[in-house]
Amino acid sequence: MKKSGSQSHKHNAHCGHTAIKHGDHVDYLQDGHLHHPDGGSNSEHVLEVNATNPDACKPMNPACDPDHTHGPNCGHEMVPHGDHFDYLVDGRLHHVHGDHCDDHGPVEVVKGH
């Protein structure tokens, strides 16, 4: 974990960023980064590759919308996962892989946190 340079923003239940459960705590998605409030700054976190959130080729079932391409401006938030980025779609991690999206498992979006 490294410290993020963003010290002016304090993540909390009312900051407007998506909160997700990460182990025994809550982190906040901001511009493709997963921030954990840590005193006066934010630590950078990454979702681990594990049995719940694998990084294997497992095409989505049902498949992603063929008229939608995940990318920086697709409207879905980027989530750091292992050594890559996934996209958060309805509580699941979608990973672009060739001509399909892989299912990299669920994440728990925390409401009101």
Describe this structure in words.
This protein has 113 residues and is mostly beta strands. It contains no helices and nine strands. It has strands spanning 2-4, 19-22, 25-30, 33-38, 41-45, 77-81, 84-89, 92-97, 100-106. The strands form two sheets. It has a five-stranded antiparallel sheet, with no helix packed on it. A four-stranded antiparallel sheet has the order 6-7-8-9, with no helix packed on it. A hairpin with a 2-residue loop joins strand 6 (77-81) and strand 7. The radius of gyration is 14 Å and the shape is globular.
What is the strand and helix layout of this fold?
Layout: E1 2-4, E2 19-22, E3 25-30, E4 33-38, E5 41-45, E6 77-81, E7 84-89, E8 92-97, E9 100-106
Antiparallel strand pairs: 1-5, 2-3, 3-4, 4-5, 6-7, 7-8, 8-9
Summarize the structure.
Residues 21-38 have a biased composition (Basic and acidic residues). Residues 1-14 have a biased composition (Basic residues). The protein has one domain.
